[in-house]
Amino acid sequence: MAMGAVSVSDEFTQAINELNEEIAKKKADATALKSQMAAYQKAIEEKRKEAATVRSELEIVQNKIASTELEIESNRLQIDATNLEIKRLDSEIQDKTLQIIRKRQMIAEFLRQLDRTDQRTAIDLLLTEKTISDFFNDVQFLEESQRQLKQTLDTVQVLKVDLEDRQSSQTTKKTELEGVQKELT
């Protein structure tokens, strides 16, 4: 029995040793798996960080796109406003030009009348008028006409300066418009 006992004991020892080896192997495998799990966890965290960075970059790009779209719309509105200002200036220029033409016509008519009156001498006027008061009325009319002529000439000069200012302003607005259009492009 002693022999049978040794062999059973050897079998148990051998079985225990095999179990110990398997346990050690399983523990090593578990440690290796834990190491792999830690590597995967680390990779997952890195991917999450990358995803957050990519998401942030995407949001930044989207914000830049929205900002650019708003800037484009702002430039379009500025172009529309400048075009309307140019149209207004065109209308004002046409109005001033017509005023100058009318004033010049008035001056021409006055000069024609003055020429007809100037051809008559003071003696002619005195002799052709029935009364002295008619003569003085004619002289007063001439003085009033000269005053109106000077006033009309002054008005034409003011209109001309205003017209030149508006044309200059129109040129400036057109230059601004070209700049905004280039910026928009």
Keywords, separated by commas or semicolons:
3 helices, single chain, 0% strand, mainly alpha, 185 residues, 96% helix
Written description of the protein model:
This protein has 185 residues and is mostly helical. 96% of the residues lie in helices and 0% in strands. It has helices at residues 2-118, 122-128, 132-184. Helix 1 packs antiparallel against helix 3 (132-184). The longest helix has 117 residues, at 2-118.
Question: Could you give a short description of this structure?
Answer:
This protein has 185 residues and is mainly α. It contains three helices and no strands.
**Residue runs with pLDDT of under 50 for 5 or more positions:** none
Radius of gyration: 53 Å
Strand content: under 5%
Strand segment count: 0
Return the string of H and E elements: HHH
How would you characterize the largest beta sheet?
Answer: none
> What's the total helix number?
3
Which structural class best describes the helix and strand composition?
mainly alpha
Question: What is the straight-line distance between the termini?
Answer: 105 Å
Q: Tell the overall outline.
A: rod-shaped
Bin the helical content. over 70%
Mean pLDDT: 78
